[in-house]
Amino acid sequence: MSASLPESKNHSGELQHQTKCKICDDLQRVGQTLSLTLSQVSEAATGGCQTCSILKESCTYARDVLHELDAEQDAQVSLQIPVVDDGFPMIVGISDIDGGYSFNEVYTVSGCAKAPWLLIGEGSERTITTEKTFQVLRGWIDTCLTSHPACARQQKKLPTRVLDVSSHNPSLRASHGDKEPYAALSHCWGKSPLIQTHRDTLRDRFDAIPWKNLSKTFQDAVTTTRELGLRYLWIDSLCIVQDDPEDWARESGKMASIYEGAQVVLAASDAKDGHDGFLRPRSGSASPKSIFQGIESKGNPYSIRIRKGDYHKWYGDALPPRSRISPDSSPLSTRGWAFQERLLATRYVQFRSEELIWECRSALWCECGALTRPSQQREPLSKKAFYDTLGSATHPEIFSLWSKIVNAYAIKALTNGGDVLPALSGLAKQFQKSNAGTYLAGLWEADFPLCLLWEAHAVKASPYRAPSWSWASMDTSIPGSSLLTESTFESKTSYPTTVLATVESVSCTSDSSDPTGRISAGYLVITGKILDIIATEPVDNHEDTSMQGWFDWDARLARQPRPYGSKWIPRRRVENFTFRFHADTPLSDPRELTCLLIGEIPTSQAPRALVLRKLCLGGGQVVYERVGLIDRVIFGSSVRSYNWMYLFEHAPTDTITIV
């Protein structure tokens, strides 16, 4: 394929050929995706179609510059052009029969003359130098401060301690309730040694922290704070006394106000630890390339450019169909603490290897402009959508959002597994402000009892984190683990559930000064139908060798009900009927277990029940712990409880305590 640059000599702004191209329709098929082959485009380009020349050059870029296509024959290459987002860069998805795929954007530079094709909109380009990066960031902050009422906040008090960066060597300062603007840092601690404040270094930190002792990430945060005209910076490892449990609990419990109150939160997204830093030359992908030049109707020259597209998948659905999407793999995006830091911050800027990403309560921006597309504004966990939902203050929407948050949060990594609730504490406080009610170990009392029907494929957390009826009792940090929550208003079943259990009382005991943080104990007293079962054998195709045990089990009733028999299994004794349950964590030698019926899906007569194990405490007290689930559908499991309600038909009702 030729790599020469086509040029239009047309001064009128109209396309040169007299009749509309039958292949590309001059990109006029508004409202539908254009599907073409490279051989068609090449033939039409040779015949004089300017539009097809542009599309042909797009394929040249994908093949010769990005090296993302493997097929040698033009007939083996196809193009997909979705018609989305007027005025934005045109998306061109290119694929071949050998599995190659390239997602690119065709555009004219913002502020320059526009091309005569309506589908080819404007695109902003990424900065290269640190100085230009600071200019962009200062402009975004100024726009937000002056134009976004939803982001406007009364000046917040400084956190208990902040770094004063006005001198070459920063120092800690006790705020004493002063009101001053400040920045905060969101970063990965990593596995390398990280400078921290401890009880024996606290006094020295108030004198000075030598510049050379700061990690590269901390140095970059100080530099950025100064460039933004701010004097104060909050960094968790330096502003919280790390070996003082009381100080740590008190200050970590203030995360919501600290990140909300910061003028801007600086996120070192691509730094795996303190040594990487975030102010560095942009590596980036291939540079944009001009593929067509022309003169528009007013006599101004325009240049059509192409660049590799950026999915920005972590903020919303990718735009092109058939695109190959990978979840955000930046080091910071995998960390549990960073998850709430992003949502809590009033203004949050990610320093990525290729560009800045901005998110506030009113807008979602990036240097390349992809996130300002209307089709990118639908992500339920974006900051704007998050606060819009909390502002609606209705329980169905609030609990549905919480369910989404926990599902996303559960797969994040925590250096200290005991932080599973503290690292979500700030978000819980925001939900309480929206009248979510009483918070109990990661669940909401007003969402009981259906929120108990979460499903897990993990191991039991040790040491103790939460009562067994809470998802927080599971350690989902092991590869292959999964967690899916359930809510009264966000059900995985897609069918209404009739609630058949009654919560008598539920309580948790806090383990610190933070009421939404660590807990030391919890119990749930609940009334419902009880059924004793015996696990007979594991289901062979559900062995998980990495977790040393089995998740799906065949089971039978522990004793024959009176009367026995059922219209659903004629001529067969109920006691001999086998069914299955899913264990939350691998069971190697299960004993007799108990099922507690929570509800029923009437359309399929499917019970939804907790599987419990009896515990005998001192003084003859009997309590239960959760070990599994029976449900209409459990993802990654063979358990399907269709037409199993007859099992509970004659089951006795009892009130039990789950711990």
Mean of pLDDT? 86
Distance between the termini: 69 Å
Principal-axes shape call: globular
What's the total number of strands? 31
Can you count the helices? Answer: 12
Q: What structural category characterises the helix and strand content?
A: alpha+beta
Give, in spatial order, the strands making up the sheet with the most strands.
7-6-9-8-10-13-14-15
Work out the radius of gyration. Answer: 29 Å
> Helical content, roughly?
10-25%
3D architecture notes:
The protein is α+β, with helices and mostly antiparallel strands and 659 residues long. The protein is built from 12 helices and 31 strands. The strands form 6 sheets. The protein has an 8-stranded mixed β-sheet with strand order 7-6-9-8-10-13-14-15, with helices on both faces. Strands 1, 2, 3, 4, 5, 11 and 12 form a 7-stranded mixed β-sheet that branches. A 6-stranded antiparallel barrel has the order 24-26-27-30-29-28. A hairpin with an 8-residue loop joins strand 2 (77-81) and strand 3 (90-96). Helix 8 (255-261) packs across helix 9 (336-344) and helix 9 packs parallel to helix 12. The N and C termini lie far apart (69 Å). Mean pLDDT is 86; it is low at 1-15, 316-326 and 563-573.
Set out the fold topology.
Blueprint: E1 34-37, H1 38-46, H2 50-65, E2 77-81, E3 90-96, E4 101-109, E5 122-123, H3 130-147, E6 161-164, E7 171-174, E8 182-186, H4 202-207, H5 216-227, E9 232-234, H6 236-239, H7 245-252, H8 255-261, E10 264-267, E11 289-295, E12 301-308, H9 336-344, E13 347-351, E14 356-360, E15 364-366, H10 383-392, H11 395-409, H12 422-433, E16 439-440, E17 443-444, E18 455-457, E19 459-460, E20 474-475, E21 482-484, E22 498-499, E23 502-510, E24 519-538, E25 543-544, E26 549-557, E27 579-587, E28 592-601, E29 606-616, E30 622-630, E31 653-658
Parallel strand pairs: 4-5, 8-9, 8-10, 10-13
Antiparallel strand pairs: 1-2, 2-3, 3-4, 4-12, 6-7, 6-9, 11-12, 13-14, 14-15, 16-17, 18-21, 19-20, 22-28, 23-24, 24-26, 24-28, 24-31, 25-26, 26-27, 27-30, 28-29, 29-30
Helix pairs in contact: 1-2, 8-9, 9-12
